[in-house]
Here is the input.
Amino acid sequence: MSKDIGRTSRRTVMMGTVGAVGAGALVAGCTTYGRTPDAPAPAPAEGTAPAPAEGTTPAAGDGATEPGGGAALGSVSDVPVGGGRVFGEEQVVVTQPSAGTIRAFSSICTHQGCTVANVSGGTINCTCHGSKFRVADGTVAGGPAPEPLPEHDVVVDGDQIRLR
Ligand code: FES
Here is the structure.
């Protein structure tokens, strides 16, 4: 009996928290985690850092998982409002365009496959050749990148951001 009450309470808390954060916190992107774009990316320019090989399964955050949720990336408070954070090991960049709105994108630049370097000035920045992507939707804001960064599915569970 007490187990059921505990589960119900936890689920209620999770749903309440997600609801409080807003529908924007649940991001349903068009890209599945770990999947690469349909067209293979051209080789990175000499002296740049290419993405890890296809087919590898990146480790995530603390590796913790829960039923209905993927690996933990970090907490919402780790992601600055109006900015973002690159999770290099997971090949994901998480942004918070406005308070409580969490978005996630591939950290692999669509130009030649470098890992984006940072998030600043409202853009996700690849320093290999200067491409910039908007934190709000991953679309190209400048540079040679031909396509937006593919979106990843994430869920906010309390303060924790998890991959789906
Ligand atoms: S790989 Fe060229 S700008 Fe990112």
